[in-house]
Amino acid sequence: MDNHRGKMSGIYDCQHCGATFSKRSLLDEHKRILGHQNVFMCRVCDKGFYRKSNLESHERKHSSSEFNQCEKCKKVFSHPDLLSSHKQNFHNQSGGELIHVSLPSGGIGKRCKYVDLGKTLEEKRCFLQIQNNDELCYARAIITAKARLDGHEKWSSIRQGRSIQMNLAKELHHNADIPLRKCGIDDVKAFQRVLEGYQIHVVSKEHFNAIIYEGPEAEKKIYLYLHDCHYDVITKMPAFLGRNYFCTTCNKGYDHKERHTCNNTCHHCYKIHDVQKEQWKYSEDCDRYFRNNICFDLHKQKSNSGQSTCNTNFRCNQCGQSVYAKLHKTPHKCGEQYCRVCKDYFPENHQC
């Protein structure tokens, strides 16, 4: 619960960062924007709720016969048609997960350099093209990607498509009990079954570069690119998506580590670090509290532009309002409030 320092003081504290507010609504807005809310997790499907009563209501659905539950992910639906649609969209027939990859959005011309697919495959270094005269491009692509991950002693010959590549592809067909023929997406499950320790992903051009198959979780990951009924190897997913990094958890590309939710960025210093024992430390410069010495030092660390969390995220010593550079488009003025519609801070009498 939030600490309320006296009924007459009208001051509300945030337990996560120590920020104070004169109104409960301002505290709620602060916690919503920065993720400083307590989340109650469902023990069955891991769905989160901000209210415990909503969690209790949700958990009753799992045990009620009136609701329809997915056997794989344990999500609950009120109608059988909704459950069927969920299975079709998120659990394909081959047993893998259907996960859509977010591609770079428009507005940055340099990332839209290639229009012709042939030129893209030829000039982009994140592809290994499979050159074959038979119908074994699927197995050849898997073998080539596997050899690259393993550091195969004859990697150069395999990459160039010499006879060893064909022999290993035929061996893979034999182990997977698949005849030497042209393979489709339905055959990937058989290949995946004999490749223990490897996780196959198939990215499809016809599905707007979405991942249409993802095998069971494994340390070594193989990415294949399906286009025009042919398979090539993707060596670097960040380069394929035009991003600096690629998250293997949510299968999305991103440019800034601290801004990606899967990296569990600290809500105090806005940096990534291991969660250690809490020894809260106060910073007089920004009037905020930090989890421990590591968290405190990271919030002081300056970027190449000379900015730090201490400079861009602070609490005003006049009005006590927390100031965040990403939300404030103009310099902070005491008495202003955040407008959800206009996405900026305005005086209390502001009308959209």
From TrEMBL:
InterPro entries found in the cross-reference section: GLI_C2H2-zinc-finger, Znf_C2H2_sf, Znf_C2H2_type
A cellular component term, taken from the record's GO annotations: nucleus
Molecular function GO labels: DNA-binding transcription factor activity, RNA polymerase II-specific; RNA polymerase II cis-regulatory region sequence-specific DNA binding; zinc ion binding
Keyword Zinc-finger: yes
UniProt keyword Zinc present: yes
Gene3D superfamilies recorded: Classic Zinc Finger
C2H2-type domain mapped to chain residues: 12-36, 40-67, 68-96
Keywords: Metal-binding, Repeat, Zinc, Zinc-finger
One BP term from GO: positive regulation of transcription by RNA polymerase II
Name of this protein: C2H2-type domain-containing protein
Species, as recorded: Mytilus coruscus (Sea mussel)
